[in-house]
Amino acid sequence: MRDPAMLILIFYSFTVAIYSAATVMPETLNKVPIAIIDEDNSQLSNRIISGFYPPQFITYLASSPKEVDHGMDAGRFTFSLTIPVGFQRDVLSGKSPAIQLNVDATRMSQAFSGSGHVQKIVMTEVTEFVMRHRTIASIPIELNPRIRFNSSLNQSWFGSIMEIINQITMLSIILSGAALIREREHGTIEHLLVMPLKPHEIMLAKVWSTGIIVLIVTALSLTLIVRGLLHVPIEGSIPLFLFCVALHLFATTSMGIFMATISRSMPQFGLLLIMTLLPLEMLSGGMTPRESMPDFAQFLMLAAPTTHFTAASQAILYRGAGFDIVWPQMLAIFIIGSAFFLLALGRFRKTLSQMA
């Protein structure tokens, strides 16, 4: 409560950051505004217009090129499509009429992926109109997909859960490390040295205090933001997930204290945090599947608690796995956390002896 900057960081990380990560996915077209000028007003042009539907596109029927140009200059439209006069007549006569597609390239992610979608929609509607029927490719086998958890393949569901996992790792390391460094900078660590406290008791107090804060905000974020605001269905047991979070916090807070014993100041701790946090998050299996990584990276990341925590969290929250399935990951997190705790405790004792 005495550190407003930390309070703002905690609030932002488990509210705004999670909502933004879930709703602003660059690979997904969501409510992309496209303006269409239909100068042909034919059956074919109407079919093309009907091919752009929510939630991927929001269609605006413009009356003139001037209106479209003004809208694109103002940033109201990402795409504009102009269907010329006589387009259907030229298509049926075997000619190759042109359709003008304007793209606002300042919106890089949507412009890159969306232009391909627009061209595919136009070509599909024109081909089906000319052939008088919708064709289905004949293949010797029939594939019946069954999609679990995320039947609509909504990437925001995946983004929100993975952002919570990343924020848990980041906040726990930052809070535990910053607490120790600030006590050393403010001189309050000397007050603890004159009290009848052992080094492992001081360290356990910092692990417990940091862990309980992150655990509480994780439960609130999962309930209010993910399930409440984003309406992401959770198939697994939330208490089991929180128990897994507690084990993970034991490991990451120990890592934060260990890094704080190495660093001499907060700026140095911040630089060390960047070198540590990015590999933990990028190679844990949350951003990129572990199967697509080199064998060396897969083997090396088995020593990181984030790898096992990501696998256990995905199994619990996505697939509704129980303790009988995720106990190997939980055991690995506890073993790795114990190793980091003993390593950090040794460094912490050495630091206290030097200060004494």
From TrEMBL:
A Pfam match: ABC2_membrane_3
Organism: Sheuella amnicola
Protein's membrane topology: Multi-pass membrane protein
Family, as annotated: Belongs to the ABC-2 integral membrane protein family.
Subcellular location: Cell membrane
Transmembrane segments: 202-226, 238-262, 269-287, 325-345
Protein name as it appears in the record: ABC transporter permease
Matching PROSITE patterns: ABC_TM2
Presence of the UniProt keyword Membrane in the record: yes
A GO cellular component annotation in the UniProt record: plasma membrane
InterPro entries documented for this protein: ABC-2_transporter_component, ABC2_TM, ABC2_TM_bact-type
UniProt KW keywords: Cell membrane, Membrane, Transmembrane, Transmembrane helix, Transport
A GO term, aspect molecular function: ABC-type transporter activity
Signal sequence interval, chain numbering: none
Residue ranges constituting the ABC transmembrane type-2 domain according to the UniProt record: 123-351
